[in-house]
Amino acid sequence: MPNKWRAIAAVIGVLALSLLPPAQALAHGVNIQYNSDIEITIVAKYDSGEPMAGAQVVVYAPDDPSTPWLTGVCDDEGRFSFTPDASKPGTWDVQVRLAGHGGMIHIPVGGDSTATSGGVGGYSYLQIGLMAACVIWASIGTALYFRRRRLA
Amino acid sequence: MKKRAVFIAIPLLVLVMVLAGCPGGKAAGTLEFYANGEDFVRQGFVSKDGWSIQFDHVYITLADISAYQTDPPYDPQTGADISGNYIAGLDEAYTIDLAEGGTDAPPILVGELDVPVGHYNALSFKMTSAESGPAAGHSLVMIGNAQKDGQSIDFVISVEEECQYQCGEYVGDERKGILSEGGTADLEMTFHFDHIFGDADTPLDDELNLTAIGFEPFAGGAQGKDVIDMGEMHLGHVGEGHCHCGCH
Q1: Which residues in chain B are contacts of A102 at CB distance < 8 A?
Q2: Which DSSP string corresponds to B4-60?
Q3: What is the DSSP letter of A137?
């Protein structure tokens, strides 16, 4: 066999071997995967310490606070677990009710957990900035006005 | 001179425009405030000590009713005062008859306000002494009839104590207080009268019945001020949600 054909045969052989299923190589392999989702567990109890077993649970996502995102029931120890959608950062609200009494817990998830828009006292930051600028402007104007009068 | 006037007038004009819009650029909707004595008041119930109670009138006087947008959301369990980003309040005092209407009557509208949009997730109100009207001099007057084992007693139970309630978000079948542009949202002051008289449909060893007075003391002639400690009764709620309560 010419050297050229020997070389081609060798290459084909190596390729064929590489295509064989690597069953033996995985005999002691370890398959590790991870999930970055965070499971949240709440525990609901009355003030007396008694678990709210069987309580109704309603979970609201931050992007639609009027519509239940998930509903469920607490277990005998008052526990309930859920995994919030990581694509919806903000405050997740969980309502728990049983026999005419209930409560709500607010759980920040992800980066920006603010539940309401920014501002103080009902004013937006733009309004606050404008007001501050006006006060400064008015102060300077008043000072200049009296300064001119004194100079005159 | 003209130049100087313009120099001062322009920033003042801007300031007035900003203030006039308070809270200005935000869209607005209508926020309604309701009072609800629940079916206990409208339909009557059996107290923990077996008295079948029917109410003709339940006069409660409410004042300083305020809604808040809080962030982080107010938690009444902390006992702290509400600190809101925005506050909308009714100025007057209102005497409401919680027993008004039939057995299926809806909660009673106390008042409404045009307010900026947002989530009103906290509420405060006072149960205060009425200055005039059928409940004058009292913060709460319950008028009705109670029956047990062939006895029938017409009662008038009056309370003079005044209470301040600070509450978080309404807890119930639906979420309340979420106001969108041009829309209407509502908040509810809910009063749990089973906390005073107990409830035969609830186990006697339940916390509610352990702290409730029942009707027996009133059948024996006791006055409201003799036996009712409003601070212990926790009458005011937001739906099923508890409120921080201080009475005097």
Answers
A1: 171-172, 239-241
A2: HHHHHHHHHHHHHHHHHTTTTTS-EEEEEEEEE-HHHHHH-EE-TTS-EEEEEEEEE
A3: H
Q: Say whether residue A99 is in contact with chain B using an 8 A CB cutoff.
A: yes
Phi (first) and psi of residue B196, to 5 degrees: -85, -45
CB contact under 8 A, B175 and A122: no
CA B56, chain centre distance (Å)? 20
* Total Cβ atoms within 10 A of residue B91: 10
DSSP string, A105-132: EEEEESS----S-S-BTTB-HHHHHHHH
Query: What CA–CA distance (Å, rounded) separates B140 from A133?
Result: 51
User: What are the tens digits of pLDDT across the range B217-248?
Assistant: 999 989 888 899 999 899 999 999 999 999 99
Which of B7, B70, B178 minimises the CB distance to A66? Answer: B178
The pLDDT score that the predictor gives to residue A19 is 52
Contact B85/A104, CB-based, under 8 Å?
A: no
Do the Cβ atoms of A102 and B26 come within 8 Å? no
